[in-house]
Design a protein that fits this description.
The complex is a heterodimer of chains A (262) and B (179). With 262 residues, chain A is α+β, with helices and mostly antiparallel strands. Helix content of chain A is 34%, strand content 27%. In chain A, a hairpin with a 3-residue loop joins strand 6 and strand 7. With 179 residues, chain B is mainly alpha-helical. Helices cover 66% and strands 2% of the residues of chain B. Chain B has a two-stranded antiparallel ribbon with strand order 1-2. The two termini of chain B are 18 Å apart. The chains are: A alpha+beta (262), B mainly alpha (179). Chains A and B meet through helix 1 and helix 2 of A and helix 1, helix 3, helix 4 and helix 5 of B.
């Protein structure tokens, strides 16, 4: 009986028409559970941070110096790029294309990293009450981080681009297109649907394109090519891609308030 | 079925869920963290048999599902299968044996995670098998051995009151009835 009941619940969740029932239950439970969980985190994290800080004091000091240097470099680059960005925004506006810099964003704090051993997700502290909806892109730490998978009242679950279920339509080089697929935590992302002998080079940057039914606004950096080769007789190039965003530094991310095309 | 036992089991499930989603998530060893929720059906099965193990596993798994991005109900399915299997497997063994709890915790914990990932992939979540299983199994096995005794104490508090063993099913309900 319990097995049948479990299978029925799974069927409800996986069925597109009845998914709203289970997501509603999850949303209500999340609203009740999140404050409890946060209270426990508030009590336990200072203790953990104290011991972690004591053990890694030297490394933290070095990291702090490195970060200060990085901030200086970025400030310099920001000043230099200001003029170019203005010009680019003007051009994009003329072409009537959305550009991530011109779209509204809200900054969110990551409150949970990898909530399961089986998915690459993070939980952020912004939800439907803040305007965050399922499908919105998440950017930060140098590029595209992922997409909102579940949106609750005050929190949201974000699927990272490296997750095995993630697919992002990309454009690169001279308007070539492909799809960057996540392969989970144990393998590099790959770029598929790229024809053999497409001009490529190591380090080639890939950006979101608006081709995949407008799942992402165009122009967000997704990743860089780390290796590529075309096997004899293969119908597509074998390409591995490293994420543009540092997926290990996700304390804060930006939610792009942009809903995918229906 | 005693209302007090049900309430106590619910409290124990909530407590372990909080520990899982706070302390256990902050432990990252080789990209994996311990999954201690499965210890609930395992210890319940060792204390009160397969049917109580399945019932505790179902509710613990369902509570776990509420905080996971995986398909809703998957944890409930795995929890009740693990609880029942552990209870059925140890029914002929001496429940007082010192080695029983750690061994059941290791095998049950690893089997639960394996079942969870394989069933998830069957239900269309292919990414659930694209993980480092070796690292996951080592982390889960070690955490299960370390934590099985405290969880066993909690479950004993929930299920056995005044020296009397209580199950979550009435005396006339047999295993075939619940299934």
């Amino acid at each position: 009986m319990l097995v049948v009941l479990s299978l029925s619940i799974i069927s409800l969740d996986l069925n597109g028409r009845t998914h709203s029932i289970t997501s509603g239950v999850k949303s209500v439970a999340n609203s009740v559970y999140s404050p409890l969980r946060q209270a426990v985190v508030d009590v336990t994290s200072p203790i953990g941070d104290f011991f972690a800080g004591a053990v890694h004091y030297g490394a933290l000091q070095k990291e702090n110096q490195r970060l200060q240097a990085t901030i200086g470099t970025l400030r310099q680059q920001q000043g230099e790029k200001g003029f170019e960005n203005t010009q680019l925004r003007n051009l994009m506006a003329l072409e009537s294309l959305p550009f991530v810099n011109s779209l509204p964003t809200i900054t969110a704090q990551t409150i949970e990293l990898h909530s399961s051993n089986f998915t690459m997700t993070i939980t952020i502290d912004k939800g439907r009450a803040d305007g965050v909806e399922v499908g919105m892109p998440i950017v930060g730490a140098g590029g595209l981080v992922g997409q909102v998978l579940q949106s609750f009242h005050h929190t949201s679950v974000v699927q990272l681009i490296a997750d095995g279920q993630s697919k992002v339509a990309v454009t690169f080089g001279n308007a070539y297109t492909g799809t960057v697929d996540g392969q989970g935590p144990v393998a590099s992302m790959t770029a598929d649907l790229v024809l053999p002998h497409t001009p490529l080079h190591k380090g080639e940057k890939m950006f979101t394109s608006s081709l995949d039914a407008g799942a992402f606004p165009p122009g967000i950096p997704v990743g860089r090519v780390t290796s590529f080769h075309a096997s004899a007789g293969a119908s597509q190039e074998t390409i591995t891609v490293s994420p543009a965003a540092n997926l290990n530094q996700l304390a804060y991310v930006d939610v792009v308030l942009w809903e995918p095309a229906a | 079925m005693s209302a007090r036992s049900v309430l106590r089991v619910a409290l124990v499930i909530l407590l372990l869920l909080l520990v899982q989603s706070t302390v256990m998530l902050s432990i990252d060893l080789g990209g994996s963290h311990p999954d201690i929720v499965w210890l609930l059906p395992i210890t319940a099965a060792l204390l009160a048999g397969p049917v109580t193990g399945a019932l505790v596993g179902f509710w613990a798994g369902l509570a776990f599902d509420l905080v996971l991005p995986t398909p809703f109900g998957l944890g409930a399915l795995v929890g009740c299968l693990v609880g029942f299997s552990v209870g059925a497997a140890v029914v002929a063994l001496d429940a007082r044996a010192v080695w029983l709890r750690p061994v059941a915790a290791i095998i049950g914990g690893v089997a639960a995670d394996m079942l969870f990932s394989v069933l998830g992939a069957i239900f269309g979540q292919q990414q659930m098998v694209q993980i480092d299983f070796f690292s996951l199994f080592v982390v889960v096995a070690v955490a299960s051995v370390v934590l099985v005794l405290p969880v066993d104490r909690l479950m004993r508090w929930a299920l056995i009151t005044d020296g009397k063993r209580r199950t979550l099913v009435s005396a006339h309900t047999n295993d075939s009835g619940i299934w």
